[in-house]
Amino acid sequence: MSELYDLYKKLGNQAYGKAISEIAPYFANIDPTFIELKPGYCEVSIKNQRSIHNHLGFIHVIAICNAAELAAGVVTDVSIPNNRHWIPVGMQTKYLAKAESNIRVVANCEHVDWEKTGEITVPVDAFDASRKKVFHADIDMLVRVKKER
Q1: What pTM was computed for the model?
Q2: Predicted confidence (pLDDT) at residue 149 exceeds the cutoff of 70
């Protein structure tokens, strides 16, 4: 089982977001809160706060990209076999609407084949408080077999 998944089960949703931000400090700028994490599924929320606003007063799309990469990375880590490792290698995004409220970011990977190696595309959607989709990303993860030491 993934060390990140073990940590999630130990800490729970609120503390896990803080722990991930210690492991990968860049994620701290969105102050993520995990809602649910299991193999094949990750849901994270980010608050509508001034520190991640654009010049128009909405959540900056790059903050949503950051949350999308977080969800995609964590769901990949907890879903791939233990003898694999991963790294993001690309992200294609669609900005669908202004993000004017708290945002829920979902990586639902029920159709992803986690047994394969090479590039795996992780779909991620972001929704506002009214459940309107405001963002979509396909994040490409390069998954390889770990070299034995």
Answers
A1: 0.94
A2: no
